[in-house]
Design brief:
about 400 residues, mainly alpha
């Protein structure tokens, strides 16, 4: 029963990753259909992220009132509504009607399932969980590519919605599997702290800024890696440059897969230290003044592999570092902080690189990697003083 529930939870995180890559992969065709500039994708992405931040901040209250299984079901329903809405949108403005369910569904499910896993499963499970998110994020561009070759971009969203419907049906059928932990979870969530109370816990704000720094670097890689190769390396084909966009995703999946096997032995703190150390090594490799693209390509894979365990390990530590009573609110705050970093800092880099050149990208990543580890190490000191 426990293993079946775990399989369902992994499937839920595949469903969480599915919608996240559709806009980027379908936008070149969508912008032509809508007759808008390429930059308008950023407004849609920011609107989705804004709704996700709101739902992440509301998640502690929802976790206190509802069991995780019901939050999951409602969230997937909202995501399906958003996907179908996008598929039927006949104009650019219509997209903004459906970013509301699109974003609200993502934030609530992300925070609630991460809270559930952090309180009931090991660090190994948490790393595998986030690895499966990457599986979903890798599948959806292929769905869009198939839709573009066989039909239109609309079908990419519609077919993804149909897959989500199948996952929703499995979640509904799996409701009895949640009963094992249901009683304990309800006892815990009835006494969970709110956001204002959680913010007063020593070390929480440091962790939130560290989470912001991590996601700032990660999202900058998601958006700008291909552009980095186009601007710094000469003689590369458009197809090869486009393929470099998957380097970070591949590295993240690899890092989380490896971490899933070793995290229980190493522990979250050591895993984060090793991960950021690997990330720094990858950044230094990208910095090497070599014209040939391969060392930089390997460097970005290494950066992704190093980043891999950081996100799930920080979240898995929340109940241990700050107590189960505070964990729901803190994980919700972490999700909101993550989305703020991933929404705004790639845009900041875009403005910065226009003035200085895109060659500064590894230095930008280095800044956030150092900020991330420095804040986390400071958090450990604060927690040690608090306990002792």
């Amino acid at each position: 029963m426990v293993s079946l529930l775990l399989a369902v939870i992994y499937l839920i995180f595949i469903s969480l990753g599915l919608p996240d890559s559709l806009l980027g992969s379908g936008w070149p065709t969508m912008q032509t259909a809508f007759g808008v500039p390429s930059s308008y994708a950023g407004y849609v992405s920011m609107a989705i992220s804004f709704m996700t931040i709101i739902s992440a901040l509301l998640s502690p209250r929802m976790i206190r009132r509802f069991h995780t299984k019901w939050i999951v079901i409602i969230s997937i329903l909202l995501t399906i509504l958003g996907l179908l809405g996008f598929s039927f949108s006949a104009s650019y403005g219509m997209l903004f009607l459906f970013v509301i369910p699109y974003g609200l569904g993502a934030g609530a499910i992300d925070a609630s399932v991460n809270h559930y896993v952090a309180n009931h499963y090991s660090g190994s499970v948490m790393n595998f969980l986030h690895c499966f998110y990457g599986v979903g994020a890798v599948i959806s561009p292929n769905i869009m590519a198939l839709a573009l070759s066989k039909a239109r971009w609309n079908e990419g969203y519609r077919w993804t919605a149909y897959i989500q419907m199948g996952i929703l049906l499995i979640c509904i059928l799996s409701l009895p599997l949640w009963k094992k932990n249901e009683g304990d979870a309800e006892d815990e969530t009835n006494e969970d702290a709110g956001i204002k109370e959680a913010l007063k816990v020593p070390g929480v704000i440091l962790t939130l800024i560290a989470f912001f720094a991590y996601c700032a670097g990660e999202a900058t890689c998601f958006l700008w890696t291909s552009s980095y190769f186009a601007g710094v390396k000469e003689g590369l084909s458009d197809e090869l440059i486009a393929s470099f966009g998957s380097l970070i995703f591949g590295g993240l999946m690899l890092g989380r897969l490896i971490s899933g096997f070793v995290s229980n032995k190493l522990g979250d703190r050591l895993l984060i230290r090793i991960g950021i150390g690997v990330e720094l090594a990858g950044i230094l490799l990208v910095m090497l003044p070599i014209r040939y693209y391969l060392p930089a390509a390997i460097g970005f894979v290494i950066i992704g592999a190093g980043m891999g365990p950081v996100y799930p390990a920080i979240q898995h530590m929340a109940p241990v570092n700050f107590g189960k009573r505070n964990s729901a609110a803190i994980i919700g705050l972490q999700m909101a902080s993550a989305y703020v970093g991933s929404t705004f800092m790639p845009m900041v880099f875009g403005i910065l690189q226009q003035q200085t050149g895109i060659g500064i990208m590894p230095f930008y990543l280095l800044l956030f990697a150092i900020l991330n580890i420095a804040l986390l190490e400071r958090t450990y000191v604060v927690l040690k003083k608090r306990k002792g």
